[in-house]
TrEMBL record:
This is glutaminase. InterPro entries: Class_I_gatase-like, PdxT/SNO, PdxT/SNO_CS. Its EC number is 3.5.1.2. Belongs to the glutaminase PdxT/SNO family. It catalyses: L-glutamine + H2O = L-glutamate + NH4(+). PANTHER family: PYRIDOXAL 5'-PHOSPHATE SYNTHASE SUBUNIT SNO (PTHR31559), PYRIDOXAL 5'-PHOSPHATE SYNTHASE SUBUNIT SNO1-RELATED (PTHR31559:SF0). It comes from the Eukaryota.
Length: 247
């Protein structure tokens, strides 16, 4: 018997959810994690913390990488000595990680470079993303999304905010029956005509059912849009429940 199990009221376990706070929408994610945690019917206490150093990352049970500018986040992560610890967190320790927009780009194994050289990625999702797929900042849009993974909570469309958003243009290792560890498509954005800019690659995962905008591979989740720029906590709540299951 452990010391804890002899106690009448064992201490509430604390789950530390880090948000990479180098650039972009980290404060917004922290707010939504806190709001979503208040809806959790779980004995666990969720603590949302900003992560800027390897020591802060070490404390985390799970991590969110926010939207922003993936090149900047990658550069600052490299300067902060965080790139290798982040890769270890995702790929060796296998802790739950969720990237939104720029975060999805950083968690992808490949990104088509818009400029020569591109940026250093963290990786973990066996996909290639196409950056800025829908065009420039002024071509940002909001669209109601059907997100089947939300189950009953998804009956009302989710406000999908797309700002210079990437799409998953190729799945390098698809999930298949009887095959472990592949990439599952969680959501698509239907009905958008390809706004091809000259020279960009064609999205090979795109078919009549739309562009791939949410994927998952084991502990790693990536989304093209910005749930953190809404007041809707449904995806954060769903993810926190998934995190608690995985721990
Ligand atoms: N809103 C965003 O996160 C945009 C991401 C941006 N396209 C990038 O390459 O980083």
């Amino acid at each position: 018997m452990t010391a804890h199990s002899r106690l009448a009221n064992p201490p509430t376990p604390t789950v530390v959810v880090g948000v990479l706070a180098l650039q972009g929408g980290f404060a917004e994610h922290i707010n939504l994690v806190r709001r979503a945690a208040a809806h959790l019917q779980s004995a666990a206490h969720v603590q949302a913390v900003e992560v800027r150093t390897p020591a802060e990352l070490d404390r985390c049970d799970a991590l969110i990488i926010p939207g922003g500018e993936s090149t900047t986040i990658s550069l600052v992560a490299a300067q902060s000595g965080l790139l290798e610890p982040l890769r270890r967190f995702v790929k060796v320790l296998g802790k739950p990680v969720w990237g939104t927009c720029a975060g999805l780009i950083l968690l992808s194994d490949e990104a088509n470079a818009t400029k020569k050289g591109g940026q250093e990625l963290i990786g973990g999702l066996a996909v290639r993303v196409h950056r800025n797929h829908f065009g420039r900042q002024i071509e940002s849009f909001e669209e109601g999304l059907d997100l089947p993974f939300l189950g009953d909570d998804g009956a009302v469309p989710f406000p999908g905010v797309f700002i210079r958003a990437p799409v998953v243009e190729d799945i390098l290792s698809p999930a298949a029956p009887g095959r472990k560890g592949g990439v599952a498509v969680l959501a698509k954005l239907p009905g958008r005509l390809d706004k091809a800019s000259p020279g960009r690659s064609q999205a090979s995962t795109r078919d009549d059912s739309g562009d791939v905008i949410a994927v998952r591979q084991g502990n790693v989740l990536g989304m093209s849009f910005h749930p953190e720029l809404t007041t809707d906590p449904r995806i954060h709540l769903w993810w926190l429940r998934e995190v608690l299951h995985q721990l």
